Amino acid sequence: MIEKFPVGEVVRAKVTEILPNGAVVELEEGSEGFLPAAERDGELEVGAEVVAKVIAYDRSGRPVLSQRRVSPADLEEAEFHREVLEFRSVLSNRSISVNIPEAQLQKERVEWRLARWLSQAETLLRRRQGRPSLLERLEKE
What we know:
Blueprint: E1 10-19, E2 22-27, E3 32-36, E4 49-57, E5 63-66, H1 72-92, H2 102-129, H3 134-140
Antiparallel strand pairs: 1-2, 1-4, 2-3, 4-5
Helix pairs in contact: 1-2
């Protein structure tokens, strides 16, 4: 079985079900994971968004997650990654015309700089993580 989420990876998840021994969560790519009660930080509600670290896989192949093992650096990296994806989404919905009036040209140049920054940020993030970015993994599938 190919693991979508390597052990140690920090993921965002949405709580879909609360059980006596933990919570079932939906991960970013639509997969399901499990957050044991002993690895939670506080009470959870269905629909709550959590940031957790993959710590293992259970017998059925679901990632087992932990909120307690997420460090402040992991939280910062997850937030940075979310911002990169948000910027990419905003920039991809923007079209650039060839005949641009001079007043709008300055705006376009700012967007070009943002696109260049986005590319550099993703490269640095991949180097830091030592693995392909979420976008690269999605493109391979």
